[in-house]
Amino acid sequence: MFSNFLYFLIALVIYTSSELFDRSKPVDPNTLYYSLISVAVFALICHTWFKRLAQKGDNSPLGLDHSVNRAISKLSIAALMLFAANIYVFRLPLFFEGVWLFTRIPTLTAVLFLGLFLVYLVIIWNAAYGVQKRYFPRGLTKKHFIGSNISFSLPALLPWFCLSLFADMIQLLPPGPVRGYFNTTSGEVVYILTFLILVSIFGPVLIKKLWGCTSLEPGYYRARIEAVCARAGLAYADILKWELFGGSMITAGVMGLVGRFRYILVTPALVDALDGDEIDAVILHEIGHVQRYHMLFYLLFFVGFIGCNFVFFEPMILLLYIAGPVYQGFSLLGIDKGDVYPALICLSLIGFFVIYFRFVFGFFMRNFERQADIHVYGFQQDAVPLVSTFYKIASLSRQSIDKPNWHHFGIGERIRFLEQCQEEPGLIARHHKRVKTLIIGYFLLVLALFCTGYSIGYGGAKDAFEQYVAKKILFQQLEVDPENSDIYVFVGDFHYNEKAYGKAAAAYENVILIDSKNIHALNNLAWLFATCPDTQFRNGPRALELASQAVSLKREAFVLDTYAEALAFNKRNVEALEAAKEALSLADEKRSYYREQVSRFEKMGQ
After folding, report:
1. Cα separation of 405 and 125, whole Å?
2. pLDDT per residue as tens digits for the range 546-600
3. Which residue of 20, 138, 335, 337 could cross-link 330, Cys pair, CB 3.0 to 4.6 Å?
4. Cβ distance 465 to 322 under 8 Å?
């Protein structure tokens, strides 16, 4: 189920990154038919795949659960690819560009297309229901099966929806200080952090309604849970009956950072299947998540992801632009750089997202689950009730205890670790210490990454990084179009800014050899010879010669300014002053600079 969280979030990345692609080309109306045909083909594939699995299960049920889950994973990835084709290839979002409502509130368009992705998942779940219902301990209707998958996945999009809708509302405000502030970087950071905090605190109230949870009725099990919470000192708002998959799934949960808005969730199947001691053990596991601050850490991990993505996004897109060998490979296939570049950005974003949440986040989730498991040792003499619970879950759901799990350890692994802790109690403290060390290491690493990214994107290393990228872009373009004399002018400018005056002069000279009337090369080389900070490169006669050629071709302010400098360097101060005054009279911009030049030459002539 947790995989559905990732699928929805990846679909969101795919949709939002579509803005990077060229949207100027007209969209072909026939793509709507192609999209519908692709959906029909996808539905047929899903139906056929699970029909064969059902036949396999009738003949040999061993390992069928693993095959079903693997099929769902593969088809979900295929759904993402099909969704990407609709966004990038068929360009379906362009059909809504002229619609007033979607233009004013872009979040609605995003919701519409996430709904399209949801349709693909519903097709998968509908096809899988006939096989997968065998693994639920009580009768489960198709409606409850599909509805539970949907409702369980949607909270992953809740923070994005609130933030995106708020951003749309800001743009609907009249121009003014409020709108201006929220459109700044600091304003964005403020409302993003504010929404994350509000969703973290009050989100459980909304999720409770979204999942259709009701208060667990008074009785033996509620009293037992209340007693465990009281013994552990856990504050909570209510104990809820969680009708996940029609209540047939044996599981429990806890949500909420603040006691007043914290809920403990238990499914009817859990209550029916477990005895009192086992219920205690499960609730102590959930209390472990709270008292070890796992939900707070999840929030901070999410903030870390947003922060690193925020500071590294612009540097990343600049670096991807200079990935020359990649573009050369695609050029052999006849694919233009303009199409490859946004695709690389999209793949990089998805790759970063998957690596972070599937592996980094998943790694911490597994260790947090193990930490919650051993929390029972603080309140019970042993973990026998929790171990027996795990065996019951495996038995009733008819799944192997050795089945791996990316966000929990496998049931077998969890049982073996609990047994090891029973034999070697010191292992409990070592695991808590290990988790603490991992968390500290994570935050130090994220802090270092954030500071590095901020320095490159906004701080002291920004100019050096942009110069590096500019150099790469410039020389790549020079390889593509070596006959373009204007590029050599930019090369000269780059070397001049780097204080490589010899290389700059050589670049300008090359331009003049190719194009003797290139104004910028004549002007810039004359400026170098007349004003170079390194006096060994100054050459008065050559500076005046080049400046005279440039001014004879075009009498503009910047050319006359260079001509004035060359005249002054050659001790022709009266003529320099006249040229400076003419430059001032022609200047439309930077007039204060040209006034200062006139004043300087007046003083030189006195």
Report:
1. 20
2. 999 999 998 999 999 999 999 999 999 889 999 999 999 988 888 888 899 899 8
3. 335
4. no
Q: Provide the 8-state DSSP code for 87.
A: I
For the chain, the helix, strand and coil percentages under 3-state DSSP, each to the nearest 5:
75, 0, 20
Task: Tell me the torsion sign for CA atoms 421, 422, 424, 428.
Answer: positive
Distance from C-alpha of 491 to C-alpha of 471, rounded to nearest angstrom = 8
H or E segment to which residue 10 belongs: helix 2-16
pLDDT score at 259 = 94
Closest listed residue to residue 566, CA positions, set 583, 539, 544: 544
**Distance between CA atoms of residues 301 and 363, nearest Å:** 12
Nearest alpha-carbon partner for 315 in 469, 205, 521, 174: 469
Reported CATH class of domain 174-291: alpha beta
Quickly list DSSP for 38-99. HHHHHHHHHHHHHHHHHHHHHH--TTHHHHHHHHHHHHHHHHHHHHHIIIIIS-GGGGGTT-
Where along the chain do its domains lie? Answer: 1-135, 174-291, 293-476, 481-605
CA 315 to chain centroid: 14
Cβ neighbours around 534 below 10 Å, total: 10
Position 472 pLDDT exceeds 60: yes
- The radius of gyration of the chain's CA atoms, rounded to the nearest angstrom, is 33
> Do you know the residue count of the chain?
606
Tens digit of pLDDT for each residue in 167-212? 899 888 888 888 888 888 788 888 888 888 888 899 999 999 988 8
213 neighbors 243 (Cβ within 8 angstroms): yes
Beta-strand relationship, 263-266 and 238-241: parallel
CA pair distance 560, 570, nearest whole angstrom: 15
Torsion of CA 336, 340, 341, 343, to 10 degrees: 150
244 vs 147: CA distance, rounded Å = 9
On the question of pLDDT at 220 being above 90, the answer is yes
Q: Which is more confident, 95 or 489? A: 95
Q: Of 55-64, 95-104, 413-422, give the range with the top mean pLDDT.
A: 413-422
State the Cα–Cα distance between residues 401 and 391, nearest whole angstrom: 8
Reported as a pLDDT band with limits 50, 70 and 90, residue 236 is very high
Which residue reads 């059902």 in tokens? Answer: 54
CA 177 to mean position of chain CA atoms? 29
Whether 481-605 and 174-291 are alike in CATH topology: the answer is no
What is the 8-class DSSP label of residue 176? S
- Domain 481-605 in CATH: superfamily? Tetratricopeptide repeat domain (1.25.40.10)
Look at residue 138 and tell me whether its pLDDT is greater than 80.
Answer: no
Nearest to 480 by CA among 324, 345, 339, 332: 324
DSSP codes, 318-362: HHHHT-HHHHHHHHTTT--HHHHHHHHHHHHHHHHHHIIIIIIIH
CA angle at 163 for the pair 162 and 168, rounded to the nearest 5°: 100
Q: How far apart are CA 443 and CA 435, in angstroms?
A: 12
